[in-house]
Structure formats: structure tokens, C-alpha cells
Design a protein that fits this description.
By secondary structure, the chain is an alpha/beta fold. The chain contains eight helices and ten strands. Helix content is about 35%, strand content about 25%. A hairpin with a 2-residue loop joins strand 1 (about 5-15) and strand 2 (about 20-30). The longest helix has 16 residues, at about 175-190. The chain starts with a strand and ends in a 9-residue tail after the last helix.
């Protein structure tokens, strides 16, 4: 099986004033099915730009990107949109939840796009909400939920159609530390269940929850490290010997 994600020297630059910003510069990486990867780096280091390339929201200016062995450059816009809906769960700070839809309806949305019949949609969305501990908040509106609960609804929505890849950009960015701990525990659970997660963060303590950490600086990878058993013991995360 090809790696889930494979990039070869991808770059993305933006013109700015008279100069060019190299937001992502010559990034090569390979991510296997079932990995939990943190992409870390200071603000402005290119993390969100890399996520938008991996999420097929933007096209690189150069380099190659294959998702599940399919070369993205060869895909039509329609196919890219279909892959985004079906194979990728986005947990980005914006856009968050639809304000005029209940928690349950928000989680159902990807299933609506996928053409899943109503009864099955309800059932699947309820299961996903249950999974994030919000079964009893199904009929709440987003403004009736705390920040952490809203983020859990976003996570339920991202995983409801069982995507191959979950992309999270600063998923704990606006949360207090105990709430962000809950969110990170949810990610760890998803990882244990075999989901592939790529999570962007500028915070070391958040990145430390992932097995593998890729560090960006000025758009380039400066480190790509897999955690030692010692750190996993400290965090009391069981090491998965299959990876
Ligand atoms: P991070 O998520 O690590 O904070 P970003 O990927 O958002 O970094 O940004 C990387 C660099 O690219 C920054 O200098 C930013 O200002 C610039 N940049 C990002 N998106 C755009 C854009 N659409 N147009 C121009 N510059 C951009
Ligand atoms: Mg960012």
C-alpha cells in the first residue's frame, strides 16, 4: 500500500509587496496510515499553508503530492472536492459550526453531502456525538455549547464519515488547558482506533501528545522525530507496538 500522504519537494509562495513569501518551501514527507503526527513551529512558519496543501484546498506551486497514491496535480477540481468531502476530516478554527443548525445537524452535514439517507445519517451522527461525549447535547445550538463542547462537535463532524485522514489546525488554540486536555485525549482515542491524524500546533505541550513531531521553520522541515518510549511513559500513553 502506498503511504497515505506523500509529498516530494512541495512549495507554496505568495507575492507580498515587492518580495515573495516562501510559506512552504521544498517539503518532502511521508505519512503512513494510522500515524498521529504533530506539525509544530512558530507562528508564520507555514503550518496552515502546509495543511491547506495536504487538505487539497490549495495547489503547490511546485513539487508533487500524492494522497493514497493518487497524484493530486492530475485530479480535477470536482474530484478534489469529492476527496475533501469523503476522505478528509477538517478540524480548522474557521469555519466552525453552522450557527443555525443544531449540534446533531452540524455533525450530519458531511453525510448529507455524501448522499446518506436520513435515518442512517441521524444514527451515524448520533453515534459520533456519543463518541465525543455529547449525546445529551444533540439538540443544542452552537451558542448553547461551551468552547470545548463546540470543538468536540467539530471533531464529531470531522470523523462522522470515517475519513482516511483527519487534519486539525490548532485544535486547542482557543481553549483553556483542561478543555484542551480533553480534546487531545479524544485525538489519542481516535489514533488508538486506527485513524490517521495530522495536527498543527505552535505549543510544545500539545505537540508532545503526538507520536511523531515534524517541525517547520520558515516553511522548511527542520526536524522530523518519533517520540521515545520514555516520553510515552511519562504521558501514560500506551505505545502501539504495531507502528
Ligand atoms: P502558520 O500557520 O505557521 O502560522 P501560515 O502558513 O499561516 O503560518 O503562513 C506562512 C507565511 O505565509 C506567513 O508569513 C504568512 O503571512 C504567509 N501567508 C499565508 N497565507 C498567505 C496568503 N494567502 N497570502 C499571502 N501570504 C500568506
Ligand atoms: Mg496557522
Amino acid at each position: 500500500m502506498p503511504p497515505l500522504v506523500r509529498t516530494i519537494g512541495i512549495s507554496k509562495h505568495y507575492p507580498s509587496g515587492g518580495t515573495i513569501i516562501h510559506a512552504v518551501s521544498n517539503v518532502s514527507l511521508s505519512i503512513e496510515h494510522g500515524e498521529f503526527v504533530a506539525i509544530r513551529g512558530r507562528s508564520g512558519s507555514g503550518k496552515s499553508t502546509l495543511m491547506s496543501l495536504l487538505g487539497l484546498l490549495e495547489r503547490p506551486d511546485s513539487g508533487e503530492y500524492a494522497l493514497r497514491g493518487r497524484e493530486a496535480a492530475r485530479l480535477s477540481e470536482d474530484t478534489r472536492a469529492a476527496i475533501r468531502r469523503k476522505d478528509i476530516g477538517f478540524i480548522f478554527q474557521l469555519p466552525a459550526l453552522l450557527p443555525r443548525a443544531t449540534a446533531l445537524e452540524n455533525v450530519e452535514l458531511p453525510l448529507v453531502y455524501a448522499g446518506v439517507p436520513r435515518a442512517k445519517r441521524r444514527r451515524t451522527a448520533k453515534d459520533a456525538l456519543d463518541r465525543v461525549g455529547l449525546a445529551d447535547r444533540s439538540h443544542h445550538w452552537p451558542n448553547q455549547l461551551s468552547g470545548g463542547e463546540q470543538q468536540r462537535v467539530v471533531i464529531a463532524r470531522a470523523m462522522v464519515n470515517d475519513p482516511a485522514l483527519i487534519l486539525a489546525d490548532e485544535p486547542t488554540g482557543s481553549l483553556d488547558s483542561s478543555t484542551s486536555d480533553e480534546i487531545l485525549s479524544l485525538f489519542e482515542g481516535l489514533h488508538r482506533d486506527g485513524h490517521t491524524i495530522i495536527m498543527v500546533t505552535h505549543a510544545a505541550e500539545v505537540a508532545n501528545r503526538a507520536r511523531r513531531q515534524i517541525t517547520l521553520h520558515d516553511g522548511r522541515i527542520i526536524e522530523d522525530a518519533v517520540a521515545s518510549g520514555k516520553r510515552s511513559l511519562l504521558n501514560a500513553i500506551p505505545l502501539d507496538s504495531s507502528q
